[in-house]
Amino acid sequence: MIKYKRRGGWRPRVRMAAAPEPGEPGKGKPFKLLGILDVENIPCARDSILYGSLGSAVAGLGHFLFTSRIRRSCDVGVGGFILVTLGCWFHCRYSYAKQRIQERIAREGIKNKILYESTHLDPERKTNSSGSN
């Protein structure tokens, strides 16, 4: 919105809105690839698409430099995009799931440590008392 102030001449005063942080719901319209894949909020989607695009360019240009066949090089480029995108997607999602499992195990361990600390069920207390006998 432009507002004009009268003192000191007619210069426009523009108020800039703060840019929304990525991943914040309700702030702006999310970027969707092909109308279905929300690249901003889905973990691993952005990296997979970027690496797939790079793989497509490398595969297509490499095939074209070796064979000089345009149509076949485009087919190889599309195949490279699919293979690299799916490969990166599955690797990233596997690592993400593995990390989530490790975080859950650590969270449960911390919760149990807090819950059982200084009670007769504390495993550290049992090892300390048996070691002193």
Strand/helix succession: EEEEHHH
| Strand order, sheet with most strands | 1-2
Q: Give the termini separation.
A: 78 Å
- Given the helix and strand composition, which structural class is it? mainly alpha
Average pLDDT: 78
Radius of gyration equals: 28 Å
Helix content: 55-70%
Number of strands: 4
Note the main sheet: 2 strands, antiparallel
- Unreliable stretches (pLDDT < 50, length at least 5) are none
Outline, from the CA principal axes? elongated
| Alpha plus pi helix count | 3
Task: Tell me the fraction of residues in β-strands, as a range.
Answer: 5-15%
Summarize the structure.
The chain is mainly alpha-helical. The protein is built from 3 helices and 4 strands.
SSE diagram, text form:
Elements: E1 2-5, E2 11-14, E3 32-33, E4 37-38, H1 45-67, H2 70-116, H3 123-132
Helix pairs in contact: 1-2
Descriptive terms for the model:
two-stranded antiparallel ribbon; 4 strands; 9% strand; mainly alpha
Please characterize this protein's 3D structure.
This protein is mainly alpha-helical and 133 residues long. It has a domain of 74 residues. Helices cover 60% and strands 9% of the residues. A two-stranded antiparallel sheet has the order 1-2. The chain has a two-stranded antiparallel sheet with strand order 3-4. A hairpin with a 5-residue loop joins strand 1 and strand 2. Helix 1 packs antiparallel against helix 2. The longest helix has 47 residues. It starts with a strand and ends with a helix. The mean pLDDT is 78. This is Cytochrome c oxidase assembly protein COX20, mitochondrial. Belongs to the COX20 family.
